[in-house]
Design a protein that fits this description.
6 copies of one chain form a homohexamer.
Chain A lengths: L39 E6 L14 H7 L7 E2 L4 E2 H4 L2 E6 L7 H17 L3 E6 L5 H12 L3 E5 L19 H7 L9 E5 L6 H10 L2 E4 H7 L1 H12 L3 E7 L21 H9 L5 E8 L10 H26 L7
Parallel strand pairs in A: 1-4, 1-5, 5-10, 6-7, 6-9, 7-8, 9-10
Antiparallel strand pairs in A: 2-3
């Protein structure tokens, strides 16, 4: 069953708003373009021109919002009310020009820079994975090269595809080339699927990333992977990027380039909950493709994973204030 | 193809907002709870406890909003820019208490009364057809008994179902009993489907309504039906109620009690366009059930029919100002 | 909205059974294997081994039953309560051996013969169209060669397909060869779609059938087709066979060999309602394929068309008792 | 592949009934309203007015029946033929009044009491989880306060939602208040998902229930949970309640308030199989929502879990007769 | 039912290939990259970067091929075996660079030029409507400015969208500007839907096109529109462009920018069949979006409309050889 | 994201073919009917008349091809480029006669014998599981009785169903009776689901097969099962048969007789990868039913499992040439 919005028990029915009603914002957080006092902004980036296979992720933000409506503010695993720790808003969507990648990258970078300069942690709702490049451009302007914590079935470090340099297969090579990401404190987790050749398998390691294939994750166990992330990242500012195809297609059919043999949602959550303590300065969740998601499970998972990100940031902040408490250990 | 939002050609990309992006309001009309200067308010009424068969229409407002996003302000058949004639807002949803009909009816009536007292014409997005009763209660407080122009496959004038008086099969009998509707200037159009007995067939006529079955509409032709509506209604204030199951299930599968042998969307539109000149004081479009609408065609049709209602009201207002112009004749 | 089951207004709630509840029989007619006093028996024939393209119609009977649940006993167009005129039961399904055509044909013929010998008019729910052959074998044993009134997009009079004589493309050629159908008083309506050659176009006419293509139906108009059927059939005993692919794929996507450019449900209904007066001794409705019917519109149409068949038989019986009354003229 | 109905090898094809054919009852158990000699009755309770989010579970019983058709009588894990141990029937559906909760609760309680007074163990097919309250009222009349074994992602022990006391979020608080359930020997398993606040997390424990979150189940392991259930319940009469949203949305998308991070079906089965030995006096499986279940996997899982419940009751009975045998240890 | 492939009745089963089997080419026409002796080539153009709303039409060619498999070579309305008149092949797909419009336009133009220089009539399977521009560039190189016969719900003559000149809203303005199309002998049919302003309504007429709105088509009747096309086009070489959103969303849900109030498939076919006699030198059918087409009706319609185009070209050729024969008059 | 076809970086765009484009062959391996030099041929066997429940697997080959398009040639777990080791082609589909089992079995056996006599390893794409019998007939002619490695939820060793000997529940009993399979070195893995009686549970063991139920697999662990296979099979020539219903319905909803409580794809892959070293002489993957697979996850899984089979055969060949290398241990 779903729960009432106002657990404090407002007596006036006009203050109640059932979870199935109302204009859709992420988790019913307030829609705001004002940024003063805001800690985290959920921001849609409806750009999917960067895909090399199945497009449609431009509708990802709308679907994630729609299926976030039952999310409430208390995270029982991390043991906190995120709205008691942080101010979180839905900032709406950034402008893009569908079909025009470089023009859109500029708009995304410009749009995100406003948030970052205001000291807000943006969580981008993709859109395809190419958006991480302009996001990182905005991030690096303030933070310098950041650590990348990257959940995905693909490394996304190709050089070119069909001779073009900007698409959803190349953002993290570009980010290294442009000095936006420090591969030496970065990590990619969940990699799997057939390839064009062994070179593709090694290209991320050659760039300097630590790479965990899906099989390596299973063999080592989730706890070991959580430790590996902390070891790798340390105190660096972190860009957290979650491609929904990290999940198995049974859990995330609604994505453009699904890879079989992936992870259950609870495994992804265990890994995310383990990120408490990292200095996350920006994040995104990408590649949700609603037209392939007839049961909306992909969008539902995505919405909850974004909420987990919010809670991890809140728990980290609480930890810094009060020292570690008994969260998801 | 879809069209840009700002036909005037804004140069600043930040002013563009592609139709696939942004927080969803109806047709991207502004969300507003302020009513001063507002002519028409689109208002969701996510109540479906009144259904006797398949529930789920509480998600109707969200789906209609989502699939209204490509609607623009110029109506080429009626030849007008609705926003040049009228101020139209999306008012969000009224509060309801799912599972509790009478309590919800009170909330709906109270919510709608605020709009009507402000001189706003509300267009309710259902929700099931039982909501027409509390809507009419609010309407009649200001306008007295109104003319009902009712498109539906069912007459909705049963007395009780399973011994209960308030559900989506009874609103218009209740409305007559409560003096909210004047059946003598009211009309029901599109009726069809099997019944429990001949009494059910005649019950609306006995209450005083003019009734056109689907077969009678086809035999007479759309032009004759348009004339019949005007003849019947005259100058009375009108409550316009459109049950999406007026359409054939091929055009509106997403509804709770579909009846085969119905109408194509273009036929519904021809009839709606013919309402220019009526004094519509309130309207609703009900029984959109998104979970039965995998291709979203029902919601798309509903959104366009609501826009047609807005345009008809705008054209009527223009006609009153400037005399009849060449609209949809 | 849906209507209550007991329009007479039973006071005991235990006598009410909402249309969404209970074990599914066709239109909630009683399930019975007893035949004394029964006029019409709805009988499932879940056989689809005869298909040459997409199988799955073995699940047709279950889907048609499920989506017949809102049908009630009064037919407003023909103006009668079918249960006041006739005793109608759901007889369940005949046994078949999936994958074994000739063995199944024997079981179907044997099963149907029991009904026909008991004086019952069977209405078969297919299954694929090959079942019409064993049905006709049972029918002709009692009635001799019958008139075929056949709604379909295909003539189903091929000689062999892949060298085999028994499948859903051949039943009516076999029926003529076996002397089960008198083509001279038979008619096929709605034919369309590409062919292997001109010979396939003429094969039915060469066998002696009157054939109306979809285009000819549209050019002549429905009233003319109704007259043509009566002219052709006269007083002969009639086997009425309705292939759901007579309807356009927008109205009946759930079928194995859909042909574009077909008819709306209301057109099919107008034609069926025109059959009052014919001496229908058996009927079937075939080729409903639920796995291609995500919105259940095909099954809903099929259920209503079967109810129309029941009502036509009832109206004919009433007409014979009391003379013609004002039904669907 | 599916298996023949009559493994004993009946020679008469008329005794065969393929699993895809025939009127749908649960697992093709006989439909019966007579209760003499009946041990277990599967009974549909198509009530969903109690939902706070997405309705439609009133169609749960029909969907579960449809997708139970391939279930046969021998349970290989528990090693028994359930029909050799027990008499099991499908009792059809209880009457309800859609939209009217308290009236329906009375009908459900009255309907179930008939079964319980006859010494039958009812297994209710929901419907939403609010039905557990009237079920428990009927159960407690005979057995006094019972132990609740409750699989769910939600505790369902809220006090009020939108000011109302009777809905699918409150049944087990009401049951404690009314003395129907003894929380001291009751247990809730699988709890997860965001909340309105920490109070909601603790409310069940404050009422006296033992609560296992999803995370605690995973950390302890299934065997430990099985032991915990037996420790908690002991020899008390048990009401077993399984909300299908215990399963992960990938396994049960068709439910009204899905929570990500749930369990695989095989995990649920391992837990259910471990219940052999408990004194189950009534059970239900709730919240199956067919309109969100395009592949019917939810209904298929639900049908099999209900069969597992039947087999557990049969195995317990056998164990009491013959002592423990080598079942699912 | 479906028909056998080899109506001539080959005896060797190895020569039979059921319509559900084999590698998919359009209508099972041979796949060929050789062009000598070829009259018509079906050619996929899987480009959808030009869309302004919902992408995915890059999968259109695959879906149209899949659902063309039951099409056979004899067209009964036009009365000819297309393969007896013409040599038709499936040429596969042209290369494109997803996400890069101008680079793709060059590849499309280059690819099509090969066909046109070889004297082949190409029928392009889109892809979005922007592909008509590079197609026309290739066409005009050989034929000079051509007549456009354009079925669509949109005029596709915008100047820029979001400041960009090349997308699916602009191809025919560009084509006029580049001298590829002679608007004075061109015609657009089926236009409807809301607009940004009255200027958008008139922009095509200002460019010189004859425009028929959907409403004007209905008021004049199909026969009048057929005549208007012939009057307008005369003996000019024709580029025939069919946007599947000409059809109503009930008939073509699987498209990116559906407009309600459109046409049934049979109406589209009547119009296409009326084109016999025109000098069609190239054609396309665009905007089929399989991810929005769960019942595949859109793809099925598209495949049949392409076959109708092939048959019209064949019938025109026959007419030129033998004079007019009794085709679809 | 998806990857480019030509990782070597061809400069000519005409050599690129995006994964979403082109005529569909399995994994875009070349279509070929020539067999010289071919090591492995993927061959569709679109026969589903053998099913006892839900048909439609005749469309399995087309769906698996469609969703294999993103598979590339390098297998990172086994560490090899399959096309560097082997020549693999798509051979198209074998002829069958839908509805006629024995005639089809002959065609399948004849068709497969051509491949086997040419020294090719065929991997059959079903189609239902009955096809394994004619496949084994062809295999045994060359290799004598083979070892069966069989992944399935059903043993498929029934004697007769509805009195018939040839269907998808009987192939492996028939194969033992005909001396095609040596049960003493054969193994069945994944068995689960309800049965008609205990005899059905033991029938495979009585025939001599080693049988692992799903529960036994889970209790022993995947590594132990891998060892058990090698122990059982040794150096025998192997027929590898994978029924997609080995997977849980959440991972493979698109199949005719799904059984709950099954395996995740990654578990199936771990088991398949463990087969390196076996002498696989033929294989099949059966029971993919696209009409029950709205998200195409079943077909995607099937395509990848077939690719895993190819890679296992390649790795075995490499191992024989060079000795064991560090593949998937």
């Amino acid at each position: 069953m779903a729960r009432m919005t106002n657990s404090a028990g407002a007596q006036d029915p006009h203050l109640w708003q059932p979870r199935f009603s109302g204009i859709r914002t992420f988790a019913r957080f307030p829609y705001s373009r004002r940024l003063d006092g805001v800690d985290i902004a959920i921001v849609g980036i409806p750009f999917d021109t960067g895909v090399t296979y199945r497009p449609g992720a431009r509708f990802g933000p709308a679907a994630v919002r729609e299926h976030s409506s039952r999310i409430e503010q208390y995270h029982p695993v991390l043991g906190l009310d995120v709205l008691a720790e942080l101010s979180v808003v839905d900032y709406g969507d950034l402008p893009v020009v569908a079909g025009y990648t470089e023009q859109s990258f500029q708009l995304i970078e410009d749009g995100l820079r406003v948030l970052i300069e205001a000291g807000v942690i943006p969580i981008g709702l993709g859109g395809d994975h190419s958006i991480s490049l302009p996001e990182l451009r905005a991030v690096a302007q303030r933070y310098g090269p950041v650590a990348l914590v990257h959940f995905d079935s693909h490394v996304d470090t190709w050089d070119t595809i069909w001779g073009t340099k900007y698409n959803h297969g190349t953002p993290f090579r570009r980010a290294v080339e442009e000095g936006l990401v420090d591969p030496g404190c970065s990590i990619q987790i969940g990699i799997r699927g057939s390839l064009g050749g062994p070179g593709e398998f090694e290209q991320s390691r050659e760039l300097g990333f630590e790479v965990w294939t899906a099989r390596e994750v299973r063999r080592a166990g989730l706890a070991e992977v959580r430790e590996a992330i902390h070891r790798r990242v340390g105190a660096s500012p972190v860009f957290l990027s979650f491609d929904i195809d990290f999940l198995d297609p049974a859990f995330a059919p609604g994505t453009g380039t699904p890879e079989v043999g992936g992870f259950a949602t609870w495994e992804a959550q265990e890994l995310l909950w383990g990120l408490v303590g990292l200095d996350i300065v920006a994040a995104d969740l990408v590649e949700v493709l609603p037209d392939r998601d007839p049961m909306d499970v992909t969008a539902l998972n995505a919405a909850n994973l974004v909420f987990d990100m919010v809670a991890v940031i809140a728990a980290t902040r609480r930890e810094r204030r009060y020292g570690a408490v008994n969260g998801a250990q």
